[in-house]
Amino acid sequence: MVLLKSFVLAGLTAVVAAKSAVLDLIPSNFDEVVLKSGKPTLVEFFAPWCGHCKNLAPVYEELAHAFEFTKDVQIAKVDADAERSLGKRFGVQGFPTLKWFDGKSDKPTEYNGGRDLEALTAFITEKTGIKSKKKLAPPSSVAYLTDATFKNTIGGDKHVLVAFTAPWCGHCKSLAPTWESLATTFANEPNVVIAKVDAEAENSKATANDYGVTSYPTIKFFPKGSTTPEDYNGGRSEEAFVAFLNEQAGTHRAAGGGVDATAGTFAVLDEIVTKYIGGTPLTDAAAEVKKAAESLKEDAQYKYAEYYIRVFDKLSKSDSFAAKELARLEGILKKGGLAPTKLDELTTKTNILRKFVEKVTGKDEL
């Protein structure tokens, strides 16, 4: 009975092992599989008791499955606690250590990038030109910063919201999809960057230390032109982040993508529209809008101040222009399929046109 049980367990273990796409390396096969095969190979040196190794394991397995269709790149691992000679041979001093063997040299380079699937996949594609056939999430709009790129990103002409994270952190994993969605929402804002720093990666932990990050996730906001951040302590829903950034950066984004109902509108110009509806002659209102728009030239949305001028010009030729143009643009928006930048542009124009149409409706009722 004991013998049968052992046999069954051994069989189950073999089945589980067979499912793994990661190559297991030991001293007797290392040279043959890695150094003499001519195939680029990413090798993880791990220890079974290492917590970070356990966190990396499912990601590393997924990485191997993502490239198992090709025979031109290999994903492998070494139990460096059991096979200490291999760890010593390649200068492994901590776990997990990832080393890249290019298939030509026996001297590897150490991988110090992010330990998420996207970062690892991008690294292999960059090194080999081979793209994963596994359907990954759409390209991320999050800026993944390192010690080198962080200093080049903050303090310039962009507002930067940064999440300092760790691969093993449960709260970080919960935040991740919201952070990705937030970055997509602000992807069309040239003055806003949604960034992330892997605070435990070798190439970015110094930055985390510089800013006193001791828990995860820690979120900091760097206003444009400043390297001194303010801690973000608000809610962690996309709506909360969007509201915070709109206030800080003067943007008009809407949670989930697109722009809000105030995008492109200016209170000073709306007041002139109101006066026009109230009886101010169109030529006088048009001249006043043109003059007022001059003071808005430094505003990031200035081109929409010019759109007010255009609407007044069109109204001088047809008093039904605003209503007809609003209906046309709403029809286009309803069909969908627009590129994000075009969607923002048309939505913003409808915000402005609606000011005229709503007011005109009120005038007609009088």
Can you count the helices? 14
How many E-type strands? 10
Largest sheet geometry:
5 strands, mixed
* Strand-pairing-aware structural class: alpha/beta
The geometry reads as elongated
Oligomeric state of shown chains: single chain
Please state the average pLDDT score.
89
Strand content: 5-15%
Fraction of residues in H or I helices: 40-55%
Distance between the termini: 95 Å
Which regions are unreliable across 5 or more consecutive residues at pLDDT < 50?
A: 1-18, 360-366
Element order: H for helix, E for strand: HEHEHEHEEHEHEHEHEEHHHHHH
The side-by-side strand order for the widest beta sheet comes to: 1-3-2-4-5
Radius of gyration: 29 Å
Description:
- The chain is α/β, with parallel strands linked by helices and about 375 residues long.
- The protein is built from 14 helices and ten strands.
- The protein has a five-stranded mixed sheet with strand order 1-3-2-4-5, sandwiched between helices.
- A hairpin with a 7-residue loop joins strand 9 (about 220) and strand 10.
- Helix 10 (about 265-275) packs antiparallel against helix 11 (about 280-295), helix 10 runs parallel beside helix 14 and helix 13 runs antiparallel to helix 14 (about 340-365).
- The protein is elongated, with a radius of gyration of 29 Å.
- The model is unreliable at about 1-20 and about 360-365 (pLDDT under 50).
Protein topology:
Elements: H1 2-19, E1 23-25, H2 27-35, E2 41-46, H3 51-66, E3 74-79, H4 84-89, E4 97-101, E5 109-111, H5 117-128, E6 143-144, H6 147-153, E7 159-165, H7 170-185, E8 192-198, H8 205-210, E9 218-222, E10 230-231, H9 238-249, H10 267-277, H11 282-294, H12 302-315, H13 321-335, H14 340-365
Parallel strand pairs: 1-3, 2-3, 6-8, 7-8
Antiparallel strand pairs: 2-4, 4-5, 7-9, 9-10
GO molecular function: protein disulfide isomerase activity
Signal peptide: 1-18
InterPro entries: ERp29_C, ERp29_C_sf, PDI, PDI_thioredoxin-like_dom, Thioredoxin-like_sf, Thioredoxin_CS, Thioredoxin_domain
